[in-house]
Structure formats: structure tokens, C-alpha cells
Write a structure and sequence with these properties.
Layout: E1 3-13, E2 18-28, E3 32-36, H1 43-50, E4 58-63, E5 66-67, E6 78-81, H2 95-101, H3 109-118, H4 134-146, E7 152-156, H5 164-179, E8 184-188, H6 192-198, E9 201-206, E10 208-214, H7 215-219, H8 222-239
Parallel strand pairs: 3-8, 3-9, 6-7, 7-8
Antiparallel strand pairs: 1-2, 1-4, 4-5, 9-10
Helix pairs in contact: 2-4
């Protein structure tokens, strides 16, 4: 199997807390990796480091066999959808404007139509982004992430605050991208059911990595799932 991501001994220390402690895992081409963990487990720090936004870490992060501190070329092969894209509601940009922002070459204009159709938002192309529902907006940001044919799609809790019907549609789109287009997906989520259904691998993160392997192995082991739930509950109580 071709390794597309390799993370070795990743440690991130903030002044008052160690966000990640000696985390190592690999992702193979075509994997659908679900990253689960309580709030404050380090998922966003992990993504910020992988995207080159956070560079003060110990350890190595490699994409396609190259250390990301030595080459930023890998970013061309990535699509990223943040948890809650931030934009001004009244900002006069249309759906196709937002997707166009993701394009690298102006000549690929017809790619915009193609991707909007694929995500069932073609009829919204001239609508302002601020007028759309949360689920529709999220599909627009996925379209922006996909318009350059990335090899890897990184999603940070992408369904926060979206209605159930949109979530179901969103998940079926992800399944298709992974199975039909062979896009490697790395996705953080709190929805264990969805991870169980969609992901073929799971990384269970709580500052350190306490499980990484096949989803089936994780979800069929009651003890592991129980440990995970207890860690999440403790973290939840700690925050309240």
C-alpha cells in the first residue's frame, strides 16, 4: 500500500498544556480515516500542524514521503474543509465565486460546474453564500476543497450545527468520493455511529494516540469503546 501521510512522534507543547504527546500514525492511499476524541483532545492542533499552519512541533510530518517542513508542494494535493468556515453573512459573494477561490488555474472554469453538479448545488450557483442553509454552505466549502482534484481531503468536524437530513446527504457524498473517486479522507468527528459506518480506519486521540487501526477492530471491542466513552465523559465534566 502506498503511504500518503506519515506522522512520527508528533508533540506539540503550548505554554500551559501539551496538546499532542508523541503521536505516530500512517495513512494509506484510499483510506477513510475517522479521528475521534473528546473536545480538547488535540484534533484541531493535529490538523493545523498537518496543514503547515502550526510549525512549532517536535517530530516529523510527511506527505507523499516528503517532510512538510522542507517542501510545501503537498498542499496542492490537499483539500481542507474547516469546522465552521468564517465569513460575513452580508458579503456579496455567490456560490460559484466561493468555489472559484479554490481554483488554481483560471482555465478550469468548467470544473466549477462539474463539481457543483456532483454535490447537488448547481441550481444555487448564483445565490449568495450568506442566504444558504448550514448544510448547503458546507457543501459549497467541500466543492471549493474538491475543485482542484485533491488526492487527500481533510475535514474538521464538518457537520457541526447542520440538520440531520443534510448530514445524511453529506455522508453519502463522502462515501462516494472515497469509494468511486478514491480520494483519501481524513475526518474528525464526534459521531461514533457515522465513523463506524463510513471509515475503514480509526485513530482515537486524547493528546496521545490510544488506538489506531481498523474500525472493525475498534468497534467490535467493547472494552475499547467503553474506555473511549469514559475518557470523553471525563473531559466533558472537566470542561464544565
Amino acid at each position: 500500500m502506498l503511504k500518503v501521510v506519515e506522522i512520527n512522534n508528533l508533540t506539540v507543547q503550548y505554554p500551559d498544556v501539551k496538546a499532542l504527546d508523541d503521536v505516530s500514525f500512517t495513512v494509506n492511499q484510499g483510506d477513510f480515516l475517522g479521528i475521534i476524541g473528546p473536545n480538547g483532545a488535540g484534533k484541531s492542533t493535529l490538523f493545523a500542524s498537518m496543514l503547515g499552519l502550526h510549525t512549532k512541533y517536535k517530530g516529523t510530518i510527511k506527505f507523499f514521503d516528503k517532510d512538510i517542513k522542507k517542501s510545501k508542494n503537498y498542499l496542492k494535493e490537499l483539500g481542507y474543509v474547516p469546522q465552521k468556515p468564517i465569513f460575513e453573512k452580508s458579503f456579496p459573494v455567490t456560490v460559484s465565486d466561493v468555489v472559484r477561490m479554490g481554483l488554481r488555474k483560471e482555465s478550469d472554469e468548467n470544473k466549477i460546474d462539474e463539481i457543483l453538479q456532483q454535490l447537488w448545488i448547481h441550481e444555487l450557483r448564483n445565490r449568495r453564500i450568506g442566504e444558504l442553509s448550514g448544510g448547503q454552505q458546507q457543501r459549497v466549502f467541500i466543492a471549493k476543497a474538491l475543485v482542484n482534484n485533491p488526492k487527500i481531503l481533510i475535514l474538521d468536524e464538518p457537520v457541526t450545527g447542520i440538520d440531520q437530513q443534510s448530514i445524511e446527504l453529506f455522508y453519502s457524498i463522502l462515501r462516494e468520493l472515497n469509494s468511486k473517486q478514491k480520494i483519501t479522507i481524513i475526518w474528525s468527528s464526534h459521531d461514533l455511529d457515522a465513523v463506524n459506518k463510513l471509515a475503514n480506519h480509526v485513530a482515537c486521540l486524547n493528546r496521545t494516540l490510544f488506538f489506531h487501526g481498523e474500525s472493525e477492530k475498534f468497534f467490535s471491542d467493547d472494552e475499547l469503546v467503553k474506555q473511549y466513552s469514559e475518557a470523553s465523559m471525563q473531559e466533558h465534566m472537566h470542561h464544565h
